[in-house]
Amino acid sequence: MMLRIRSRDGLERITIDNPNITISQLQTIIQTQLHIPIQNQTLSTNQNLLLSKTHNDLNRFTDMSNPNTPLSTLNLTHGSIIFLIYDGERRVIGPATAFSPAGSFGRKMTMDDLIAKQMRVSRQETPHCESVSFDRDCADAFQRYVNETLAFAVKRGGFMYGRVSEDGRVEVDFIYEPPQQGLEENLVIFRNPDEEKVVEAIALGLGMRKVGFIFTQTVSQDKKDFTMSNREVIQAVEFHAESGLKEWVTAVVKLEVNEEMGGAADVHFEAFQMSDVCVKLFKEGWFETEIKEEDDPKLSKMKKDVVVGVKDTKEVDNDFFLVVVKILDHQGPLSSTFPIENRNTQVTMRALKNHLDRTKSLPFVKRISDFHLLLVLARFLDLVADVPALTECVQTQTAIPEGYQILIESMADAA
Fold this sequence. Notes:
Elements lengths: L1 E6 L2 E6 L7 H12 L6 E4 L10 H4 L22 E6 L24 H7 L2 E2 L9 E5 H14 L7 E8 L4 E8 L3 E3 L4 E3 L3 H13 L3 E8 L13 H14 L5 E10 L5 E11 L1 H8 L15 E10 L2 E7 L4 E3 L2 E4 L18 H10 L5 H4 L3 H8 L7 H11 L5 H12 L2
Parallel strand pairs: 1-4, 5-14, 6-8, 6-17, 11-12
Antiparallel strand pairs: 1-2, 3-4, 7-8, 7-11, 9-10, 12-13, 13-16, 14-15
Protein name: Putative nuclear pore localization protein NPL4
Family: Belongs to the NPL4 family.
Keywords: Phosphoprotein, Ubl conjugation pathway
């Protein structure tokens, strides 16, 4: 008689010669065939055993706790599943018998191979990012636009730039908003490689790098019971996987309406990392990326079964993929008062003149210490020579060479 044993290692098989053996004899067989010491084993026919976290939890499963109980009294038949929790570590060793997945076609697979092919999805408790801190001005400039201009009616997104400390703390000092089309349920980003090349050059000169993705949810989404939708998970993990940065952060901005406070609404920031298994699933092509109208937005669909808890499924609750990151704020080195790129109103040289006129009382280096202003200037400057020279002055807050100052002022005056 064959019994299947489901543990944290997946599904394994054992063979027993006599269906009338006791639980004590079964434990001896498990020790012999699966190399798990008897004293480390807790068995049950109840799959909830695998969700146990403490010894008190384990003590609730008593159906197989008496070593003298015969298996025949538990209604176990050939192929039945028994659930197992054990203490300690082990190397999973499959049985000598092999399994051919397609009759006589393809190479034979051992049980080790089958278990290795299982993709298990569980919650990741600890992020690689210790915390994320937002520059107050750049965060305010982003949320004010989506709140006051877009009224959270359509989605908006951007790439966050800043620094990552050695202990995994992320500081966001500016947000670049690429060309995009925001809809009620979807956000389409139109990547512009030429513009992104300029953004990267400015960030490099400022001693910064791309550290995350930020997007807004609409008012209509606030009424739905998910943290992130399936579309949002796919978009967020795509950027996370592309970055190659283990501390990469995904930030969500939403308008939370408090019915108890008479319908008052507050802008709320949340920060997450996409879990390691989420990034792995995306890179290996497990996600169904075509979202249908009837699909439940709080579930991500897989192309193949994954194991969630003790269940094989193609649908995973999006919350399994999110690892919460602590949010802080700080006052960074840049201002965010210059008009921002790729919004409803095109940024012109008139904006440069107005900005310089408005900031006349400040040192010139302070007047141009704004990423969005530097992006406008960089379109007319040499990326190899001029942009590094200007951004180094901004980073160190040293005087701008007179030649650059005259050039920038003449560009503004020509507006």
